[in-house]
Amino acid sequence: MPGIPRATPRVDTAQLMELLATSLGAYYGDFTEAAARENLTASQGKTLSVLRRGPAAMRVLAQTLSCDASNMTGLIDRLEKRGLVRREPSPTDRRVKNVLLTAEGERAVDALRASMHTTTAALDALDDDERATLHDLLTRTFAGAKDKS
Amino acid sequence: MPGIPRATPRVDTAQLMELLATSLGAYYGDFTEAAARENLTASQGKTLSVLRRGPAAMRVLAQTLSCDASNMTGLIDRLEKRGLVRREPSPTDRRVKNVLLTAEGERAVDALRASMHTTTAALDALDDDERATLHDLLTRTFAGAKDKS
DNA sequence: TATTGTTATACTCTATAACTATA
DNA sequence: TATAGTTATAGAGTATAACAATA
Fold first, then answer.
1. Which CATH number does B34-139 carry?
2. Mutate to test the interface with A, among B18, B120, B131 (most CBs of A within 10 A)
3. Is the entire prediction scored with pTM above 0.90?
4. How far apart are CA B79 and CA B81, in angstroms?
């Protein structure tokens, strides 16, 4: 038996996947350009962004960024050379090094975020109900997802 | 004057940006892992995905992927060596080379998409209304965005 | 003159394997 | 033995500049 007619046509998974890909491209492009304005690569921008929440050991950082631990050495080396992060020996385990943002590093990541004009404008254009709905749908759809941003 | 109390608390732009980063990061992780199962890098997966819509000149491909034209040479070289794409001289402009998927290339990109289980399952869990709403919100938020997927 | 694709170059990102110093 | 960080290595991605062929 036929269902009740809908106002909106059905959206299939393939369509949503495609839209998700487009959305990711737009967001990532905005992020990459904002990072470039701070003379940062996308990976460096992501790293600083993760560290904005607080210090993290090299290993933890690698896990958060979904890359091999050996990559972190060079990545953090380059950021440290520019004075954006600092390595600090862990007080409790002498094998561990904690990485933290310097004041300059904080400034850089904040500036990066502030210059993501395209995405910011797009989100600002939504009204309160729409923002709440989008928040709810994204949370439910990607709940528990590892943060690779 | 205070507004009418809302059932859902207000979601600010910074929160939505963070959630967007997490959600799209989850999508990207799923894509990257699916590409790896086909022995493809994320960039190679994106390239094949774009070519799935039809042939494109080197230059156009570079624009679509938001990278410099000089990168395409090596990228397409590697895919061509594996028999996933093919270069074909343009009949109308002898400077131009059109790139197209081989049958094996089509198989690879289709397999890649089919193995994005995490994202597929997440989207399948939404009901029709929710899917339509998500589609609407993402479209409006990232409308007219260049496809860099 | 302008454009397309390529080459040369340099740097960054990435994974694998082996090493060191701790635990 | 196991783990944290590093090093060495190799391959892939990326941008800039210069080039040959063609428009």
1. 1.10.10.10
2. B131
3. yes
4. 5
